[in-house]
Write a structure and sequence with these properties.
152 residues, alpha+beta, three-stranded antiparallel sheet, 49% helix
């Protein structure tokens, strides 16, 4: 089943405040890697939330508390080049170069390219990991050369 993306525009100030309060109450339960049982006041029975849904909800509430809109895109979604470039925060021409170099898998539908969300995220995670490793290496070199980044 290929679910469409869901987009929530930036919240009103009142909704942002509600999100902030809810985020503060729910955030200690994020990352616990176990389901969370919620009791809704106008329901007899408690509701079980899977651990992944709790983590996702915490992130959504955090963004809303900061006044940001939120877009949820299923991993199985196929993105246009414009959408994929937005997710990676790069220009469309740069994304096309990545696709032409086969850095990110894609398929063509007529003359248009389609990129799976999971492939976009895999590329993003790989690039983020490379950046972290490069930063760690620069920090190590600065420490060896005693450039003011020594451990304390």
């Amino acid at each position: 089943m290929n679910m469409p993306a869901y987009r929530q525009l930036p919240p009103t100030p009142r909704d942002a405040e509600i999100a902030r309060c809810t985020y503060e109450a729910l955030s200690p339960y994020g990352g616990m890697d176990r389901p969370l049982k919620l009791r809704v006041l106008d329901r007899e029975q408690a509701i079980d939330l899977p651990a992944g849904a709790v983590d996702l909800l915490v992130h959504v509430l955090e963004a809303m508390a900061e006044g940001q809109g939120v877009t949820l895109i299923p991993e199985s979604a196929e993105l246009t080049t414009v959408q994929a470039a937005d997710v990676l925060n790069v220009s469309r021409p740069y994304l096309i170069k990545l696709l032409d170099r086969k850095a990110i898998p894609h398929r063509k539908v007529g003359r248009h390219r389609r990129i799976r969300m999971e492939d976009v995220m895999a590329y993003k995670h790989a690039i983020d990991r490379e950046r972290q490793e490069a930063l760690a290496e620069l920090t190590r070199e600065a420490q060896v050369q005693d450039m003011g980044y020594g451990s304390r």
